[in-house]
Amino acid sequence: xxxxxxxxxxxxxxxxxxxxxxxxxxxxxxxxxxxxxxxxxxxxxxxxxxxxxxxxxxxxxxxxxxxxxxxxxxxxxxxxxxxxxxxxxxxxxxxxxxxxxxxxxxxxxxxxxxxxxxxxxxxxxxxxxxxxxxxxxxxxxxxxxxxxxxxxxxxxxxxxx
Length: 161
Ligand SMILES: [Zn+2]
Description:
Layout: H1 14-20, H2 57-80, H3 85-117, H4 140-160
Helix pairs in contact: 1-3, 2-3
This protein binds zinc ion (ZN).
Zinc ion binds at residues 23, 25-26, 28-29, 42, 44-45, 47.
């Protein structure tokens, strides 16, 4: 089943279903069958979730967001207080761990819901073969021959006058 045939007319907002880790189609069913493993289908509406492919997106956003915030706090703590290293082991490291693991699921669910909501899919080049002779493979030899013929015709016309 494709994403289009299972698309209800009015899906819930991606941020709402994402934060709750729910099905992007109905907003009720569970999206995950494991910690980060997506379910094959929604257990409520039967939406086929095979379209979902957020790839490295969730890890990137979580790593960038949580890393930026926690490293800023780390820098402030280090500059202002300059505590012993064990303070960072009990504060900075757990904050990174909890922050990343705590936000990874909702961010992945939000990206999957956004993919569904905005009907995002792999790009297709509809214009291939529609750019005239040669398409993207522009043949420079033909073009130089055409220019040479035009120049010869102009010279012949100029000589004729
Ligand atoms: Zn559903």
